Amino acid sequence: MERKKMFINGVWTDAKSKETREIINPYNQEVIAEAAEGNREDAKLAIAAARKTFDEGEWAVTPASERGELVQKIAELIRRDKEELSELETLDTGKTIEESRADMDDIANVFQYFAGLADKDGGEVISSPLPDSESRVVREPVGVCGQITPWNYPLLQAAWKIAPALAAGNTIIVKPSEITPLTTVKVFELMEEAGVPNGVANLVLGAGASVGAELSENISVDLISFTGGIETGKKIMQAASTNVKKIALELGGKNPNIVFADADFDTAVDQALNAVFFHAGQVCSAGSRLLIEESIHDEFVETLVKRAESIKLGNGFDESTQSGPLISAEQRAKVESYVEIGRQEGAKLEIGGKRPEQKELESGFFYLPTIFTNCTSDMKIVQEEVFGPVLTIEKFKTEEEAVERANDTIYGLAGAVFSSDISKAENAAGKLRMGTVWINDFHPYFAQAPWGGYKQSGIGRELGHAGLEEYTETKHIFRNKKPEPIGWFE
Ligand code: NAD
Fold first, then answer.
1. Mean pLDDT, the chain, as a whole number?
2. CATH superfamily of this structure's domain 256-439
3. How much distance in Å is there from the Cα of 170 to the middle of ligand 1?
4. Banded model confidence at residue 200, pLDDT cuts 50, 70, 90
5. In the CATH hierarchy, which fold is given to the domain comprising 3-251+460-477?
6. What do you get for the CA distance between the two ends of the chain, in Å?
7. Residue 188 alpha carbon to ligand 1 centre in Å
8. How far is CA 35 from CA 29, 205, 207, in A?
9. pLDDT tens for residues 380-403?
10. Phi and psi of 417, rounded to 5°?
11. Model's pTM, two decimal places?
């Protein structure tokens, strides 16, 4: 079986310890690859390479338009190899091939977007209050960036970090989730083909507690960008305090979806289903918390349950499959424990709440779409991120109540409002404490729009102009045009 290697200072390499890890297909638990299992020693080598390359200075002063061309080349190679990348992503995550293809389109667009932005910020001259002087503001790369990604959107999340970091002139060390490294390894092959200079982009495979912790703690790393769970995010914040690193955190969400009685009924049902059951609910912005206005609640639930019953689970490569498995046995056990909590808390199970019974799904980590009604804001199942196909439904009477309850979690990643009364929808959207609010839609995200969370959903933004700014330092240069002694201490 082919061994996936790490990429350090332009060389494909095994782990120093020679350890490896089996990569599993969550659809049938077959071993699909073996990957080098790096540890702190490998991470230190990659950090040293990235540090030396940055400090030597050539990459950071490469004209921004040249860096942009390189990032554009990566976008083109991703488009060329879209099918191979999509197949790898489906094998590794179980998501449908249609979803993987859409991910690859998005990923290429992200590289293209940041390629275009690379040379657009020429700095600015600002007005100086002092005579005979010039003041200007320039943006420079931050330096060595550690980038840690999760398993639910392995390559998409990596692209959100790699593309802006390279466009801005940083050097990087990427650590993908240890259970889904395949597409990230492939993209490093494409970056090598594109001609990214040695030491600029480094890849270390391995566990969070070793490789991830080293990247977060190491004082030669200037910035750590992390996407993953909230508890890991807290550990990274602490570890990053060693040298007061810059941190960018994209954490989880418990995203409310508010449906007013005047919403277009069929659209709202359709979107509510897609919001939570897409990718088996393993989406940071999943609409896992549905708030329905009381007058349409019963009819809405009845329609939603009927539609959810017919979601076809299966092999991601089968074009008729609508949802794949969960990523792992651990993730399914976590979902099962939350469903048990929901039952004990008194929520009413309308559908699901168990594994499917079909023989052909037995060896995958499948779980049925699950809907709870009679939920209240104080329930754990309503407050905490399940990260699986589990929807909680609450009723509300007034706009104020809907907004107040929607805001009543520690999270603030995303939310949606469905209503045909635009002023009502805009009013609610304005009051939601979230990084993204959709009106009469759910899930659209794209390279041009910033993404990130309020409250405990994170720090900083990815994508958009803000996504490039995360990877830059701002410098003010002041020049005295007529230098002469001040004379204060004469
Ligand atoms: P996770 O936190 O378990 O792991 C994420 C990454 O962190 C992995 O690469 C892991 O190896 C690494 N890691 C683990 N422990 C570490 C440590 N001590 N130090 C450094 N790195 C460490 O998350 P996950 O289970 O892979 O992903 C699911 C979570 O990611 C969910 O909570 C989801 O909401 C979140 N997520 C958020 C966004 C967003 O944009 N906000 C996007 C995708 C996923």
1. 97
2. Aldehyde Dehydrogenase; Chain A, domain 2 (3.40.309.10)
3. 23
4. very high
5. Aldehyde Dehydrogenase; Chain A, domain 1 (3.40.605)
6. 79
7. 21
8. 16, 8, 12
9. 999 999 999 999 999 999 999 999
10. -130, 130
11. 0.97
